[in-house]
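Good day; I would like, with your permission, to put a structural problem before you. A protein sequence and the structure tokens that stand for its backbone fold form the material at issue. The record follows directly beneath this note:
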Amino acid sequence: MKKKLSYLFLILVILSGAVASGITITSCKSNKLKTKNITIYKADSTTINVKAELAITPDERSHGFMERKNIPDGTGMIFIFEKDQILSFWMKNTPHPLSIAFIDSKGKIRNIYDMKPFSLESIESTVSVRYALEVPQGWFAKNNINIDDSISLDFLE
């Protein structure tokens, strides 16, 4: 019994030292999210697709693109919420510059903002929305995607 307690104490001391030193301890669990192609309908009647990871659970939504150094053009992450609400995002631990579109429950883009890497500034939707789509910064502008364009909600099926 004393030997087991000694080992347990040693493990706690090592973990405490690692945490105090700023070492991040993670599980071996894969952070791989499901992906779906999302179609964006533009005002000029053209469409464009983005291959988006689906952030559905609270853990997936809170982690988002943290620690990702490379997010290729044409890809993104869609954050799916259970109900309409004012959404607020930040860029804590996110080294890649992003743009975010806040999207209502009917698929209409209501706001688009650029976000700075590592910023703790809150970026909020101006109205209640159901979804947020993050892409590499400038991707919306480069593809002429604007407020009032819409996305297909087929990815929910």
